[in-house]
Amino acid sequence: MTAHEDSTSISPASRVLLTLAAIAVAFAAADTYVVVLALPDMMTSVGLETEELQRAAPIVSGFLLGYVAILPLVGRISDLRGRVPVLLASLAVFAVGSLVTAAAYDLETIVAGRLIQGIGGGGLIPPTLALVADLWPPQRRGLPLGIVGAVQELGSVLGPLYGAAVLAVGDWRAIFWLNCAIGLVLAAAMLPLRPSRPLRLSKGPFDKLKGQGRGRFDWPGATLAVLSLAALSLVMLAPTRLVQDVEIGRAYLPVTGDSRWLTPLALATFALAALFVLRLATARRPLVDWRAWPALARETDLWGALLLTVALGAVIVTFASAEPESGGISPAAPWLVPVAVVAAIGFVVRQRRAARPLIPRGALSSRPAWGAIVVSFFIGSALIAALVDIPFFARLTVYRDSQLDAALVLVRFLVALPVGALLGGLLLRRFPAHVLTAVAMLLSAVAFWHMATWDATSLDHPVETWSLVLGGLGFGLAIAPVNAVLLAHTADDVHGVSSALLIVARMVGMLLGISALTTIGLQAFYAASDKIAPVAEICGAGATLCDDYKDAVRDAGIAQLHAVFVGAAICAVIAAVLALLLLRPSTDTTRAEA
By C-alpha distance, which of 130, 211, 146, 145 is closest to 491? Predict the structure, then answer.
C-alpha cells in the first residue's frame, strides 16, 4: 500500500524530514532579503561608495541568478537521484556559498559567494515540494503545501529582521557565518534520513525514501572537507592579527609574486582539497557518492539544461539589473536579449530531439499541469508591483524622509502572505483549487484597484492597512492551490522538475512584469509631467522650486504608480480567469485534484 492510498503510512521520520526541509527553505528565502540592511556595509568593505549602488547590484542579482537559473536541472536531478540527496547537496552548497561570502575580500568574491548561495538555496525548493507529493495523498496535500509556501514567503519578512538583529551585535559578515552554521546543522540533522543506495530510477513515490538511515558516515572525508573550507576562509579573510604575527604571518607571505593564492597557507589549502578528492575517489562509502554521477548524467540532458540555464540567466540579468527610475531593462539588454532568445530556441530544439530531454515528454501534457505554470507566471507579474511600488508610493508621499518607515508599509502586505498561504492550504479541503485560486487573485485585483485611488495622504489613514492585508492574503491564498494542481496532474517521477518550472515561471513573471509595468508607469509619468506648468508660472519669476511645484511633480509620480497598480490589477484578473479555465479538473486524467 502506497502513501497515496493510506496517509497513515507517513512515518515520523518523513514528517521530520519535511519539517527540516521547510526550515531550510525559510532560511534560503530569507537570504534573498537579508542584504537589504547589510548592503551599505558590504559595499564599504570592498571600497564602494554608497552612491555607487548600481555597481553593487550583482550582490543581489547574483543570488537571484543562482536561485532561479539552474532550478529545472536541480528539479530533474531530484526526480532521478532522490529528494534527500539533493536536499543535502543543496544545503552543503548553501553553506559553502555563505562561507565564501562571509570571507570575501572584494566585490567579485562577494558576488561569487552570493551566486553559490543562490544555487544552494534555490535547489531546496523543488525537492521539498516534491516530498509533499511523495508523502501525502492528493486530498491531504493542501496543508503541507500551504506550510511550505508560508515559510517561503515568510522569508521576505524575516530576512530584513534577521539581518537587523545580527547587525545589532555584529558586522555584516556575521550574517553569513550564521548562515553557514545553520546550513551545516540542518544538513547534519538530515543525514540519518539519507538513502544508502547510490541511484534509484524506479517510478514508485517511496522508492527514493527506502533504506534511509543505513550506512556509515565518512568521518575522514568530512574532516578533510571542514579543514579545506577552514583553510580557504583564512586565506580569503587574511585576519590582520595573524598576518602581522611574526611567526604565523609567514604563512601569508607569497612564495612568488604578490597573490594571496600563492602563499604557503593557500598551497596547504590546495593540498587539503586534493586529499579530499582522493578520499572521495578511494573511500568505500565516500561523503559524496560520485559513483552515481555517470548514470545520472546519462539520464539527464545536460546540454538542454545548459541552454535553459543560459536563457534564464540572460533574462534575469536583463531585468534584475535594470534601474526602475529610468526603464525596465538593463543597459546591456541589446546583447543579453538575443542571447536569451538564441538559447531558448536551442533549448526547444534540444527538447524535441534529445533521447532523454530535461523535461520528459508528456510531463506537462495535462491542461491543469501546464495551466498551473501559466497562472504562476501571471501571479508573479502582479505580485512584483506590490513588492516594488508600495514602498515607492510610501516614500513619495507620507514618508519622504524615512526609507525605513516607507519599507515598513510593505510589511502589512508581507505578513498577510504566509497567513494566506496557510489558510489556502486549509481551504483546499473544502473548495476546488481552480475556484480558490480565482477568488484569491480577484481579492488581490480588488486591492490593487483600490491602491490606484490612493492620494498623497491615503497612507496616513489606518483603513488603508486593510487593502494591503487583502492583497497579501490574496496572493498567499493562491500558493497552495496552484502547487496542488500541478502535483496532482503530473507523474510522480517528474514532480521535481515540474515544481522547478512552476517556480521559474513565477520568477520570470516577476521580472517581465516589473519591466512592463515600469514602462507603462513611466509613460503615465511623462504624460502627467508634460501638463505641469513651468516653474516661473507656478512659483513666480526668479523663484526657486516652491512647494506647489514640488506637489505637482509628486502628483505626476502618483499618476505613474496608479498606472502600475492598474496594470497589476489586470494581471491579477488574467490570473483569476486563467485559473478558472485551466486549473479545473482535467477530463483526461484519473488523478484526483487536491
Answer: 130
Cβ atoms of 475 and 509 closer than 8 Å: no
What is the distance of C-alpha 322 from the center of its chain?
A: 18
Extract the C-alpha cell encoding 54: 548600481
Q: Pick the closest to residue 48 from 102, 110, 113 (CA basis).
A: 110
Q: Which of 594, 293, 194 is nearest to 424 (CA)?
A: 594
- For residue 541, give the amino acid letter: A
Q: In whole angstroms, what is the distance from residue 172 CA to residue 578 CA? A: 44
Measure the CA–CA gap between 541 and 549, rounded to whole angstroms: 13
User: Three cell numbers at 391?
Assistant: 514602498
Phi, psi of 51 (to 5 degrees): -80, -5
| Amino acid present at 522 | L
DSSP assignment of 6-45: -GGG--HHHHHHHHHHHHHHHHHHHHHHTHHHHHHHHHHH
H helix intervals, 136-282: 142-167, 172-190, 219-237, 240-243, 264-282
Residue 354 and residue 306: Cα distance in Å, rounded?
Answer: 13
* pTM (predicted TM-score): 0.87
Weakest-pLDDT range from 33-37, 128-132, 262-266, 278-282: 33-37
Where helices occur in 324-463 by DSSP H, the ranges are: 333-353, 367-396, 403-427, 433-451
Dihedral sign, Cα of residue 212, residue 215, residue 216, residue 218: negative
Task: Give the per-residue pLDDT at 536.
Answer: 67
* Size of the chain, expressed as the number of residues it contains: 594
Residue pair 83/195 in contact by the 8 Å Cβ criterion: no
Give the contacts of 162 (CB within 8 A, at least 6 positions apart): 30, 34, 175
pLDDT band at 9 (very low <50, low <70, confident <90, very high): low
Largest separation between any pair of C-alpha atoms in the chain: 87
The sign one gets for the Cα dihedral 92, 98, 103, 106 is positive
User: CA–CA separation, 447 vs 454, rounded Å?
Assistant: 11
Spatial separation of the C-alpha atoms in residues 544 and 536, rounded to whole Å: 8
Q: Which three cell numbers stand for residue 133?
A: 507529493
Cell of 467: 487593502
The per-residue b/e assignment along 327-340, b for 16 or more CB within 10 angstroms, e otherwise, is ebbbeebeebeebb
Closest by CA to 209, choosing from 144, 315, 135, 102, is 135
Q: Ramachandran region of residue 215, left (φ > 0), alpha (ψ -120 to 50) or beta?
A: left
312 neighbors 68 (Cβ within 8 angstroms): yes
Over residues 202-224, the pLDDT tens digits come to: 444 434 444 444 457 788 988 99
**How many whole angstroms separate alpha carbon 488 and alpha carbon 594?**
7
Please tell me the distance from the alpha carbon of residue 282 to that of residue 296, in angstroms, as a whole number: 20
Other C-beta atoms closer than 10 Å to the C-beta of 452 total 16
Query: Closest Cα partner for 534 from 524, 548, 555?
Result: 548
Cα dihedral 524, 528, 529, 530 sign: positive
Instruction: Give, in order, the Cα–Cα distances in Å from 350 to each of 202, 309, 361.
Output: 25, 13, 12
What rounded mean pLDDT belongs to the chain? 84
Are the C-beta atoms of residues 37 and 160 closer than 8 Å to each other? yes
Cβ pair 85, 209 in contact under 8 A: no
